[in-house]
Amino acid sequence: MRKTIILTITIIAGALMLSACSSKEKSQPMSLSPGVASPAVSPPASVGPVSGASTTSMSPGTSPSASPIASATTSTSPAASTGPEALPENLPKDFPLPADAKITTSHSGAADGKKSSLLVFTTKESMDAVTKLYKNYFNVKLGRDAVQTIDEKNLIIQGFTKDNKQSWSMIGGRLSSQEGVIELTVTWAET
Fold first, then answer.
1. 8 Å CB contact between 76 and 57
2. Within 10 Å of residue 189's Cβ, how many Cβ atoms?
3. What stretch of H or E contains 129?
4. Reduced to 3 states, what is the DSSP secondary structure of residue 47?
5. Lowest-pLDDT choice from 11-25, 30-44, 130-144
6. 121, 122, 124, 188: which has the fewest C-beta neighbours closer than 10 Å?
7. Model confidence over 87-107: pLDDT tens digits?
8. How open is the CA angle 6-10-14, to the nearest 5 degrees?
9. CA torsion angle for 95, 96, 101, 104 (degrees, to 10)?
10. In the prediction, which pLDDT does 11 show?
11. Backbone φ, ψ for residue 100 (5° rounding)
């Protein structure tokens, strides 16, 4: 029952994020209030393909897991902040960012001894360049078992590391409210 609820919430959250990317209204940067705990949700077992997209799926026997964040530290950076100092503390240090990345949300937390991170950022690099950067990074991290839905407007990559000790989710696409801007949301958690 709990897994069904978590999977439903994950799918709804993913749909909301994708609809925000295509919204005609001006979007506001997301911010988290210091000291407020937020749930960390791992990626769903599968994501339906977007028209014209390439898709791969997870290995049988893998399932998503979720763990609420019991204690969390939040740091929200202004849109003009850039650089590795603004990355979430718990995010693996080898995570690449485009040179012009503007971090809008940076959050780290822990529950039951397992760390997690949330990162939201924008870039003006081309969708092709961003797709290449993260497809290469996650192919090394996650291998061929990752769920990938990639097209000219959306980038979704979700899965578990080869050793099954970390879960990753990256969802993003072009913002219709800001010409030439791509927004990406990254979640990472120890499993």
1. no
2. 25
3. helix 127-142
4. coil
5. 30-44
6. 124
7. 999 999 999 999 999 999 999
8. 170
9. -10
10. 54
11. -100, 15
Per the listing, tokens 């959250």 go with: 13
The DSSP output letter for 144 is: G
Tokens 């979430």 correspond to what residue?
88
User: pLDDT, tens digit, for every residue of 131-171?
Assistant: 999 999 999 999 878 999 999 999 999 999 999 999 999 99
pTM for the model stands at 0.60
Q: How many other β-carbons are positioned within 10 Å of the β-carbon of residue 138?
A: 18
> Residue 50 is encoded by which pair of tokens?
């977007």
Let me know: does 136 contact 143? Beta carbons within 8 Å: no
At 118, phi and psi to the nearest 5? -130, 135
The pLDDT tens digits of the residues spanning 70-91 come to 334 333 333 333 444 589 999 9
Please choose, from the candidates 157, 131, 141, the residue with its C-alpha nearest in 3D space to the C-alpha of residue 55: 157
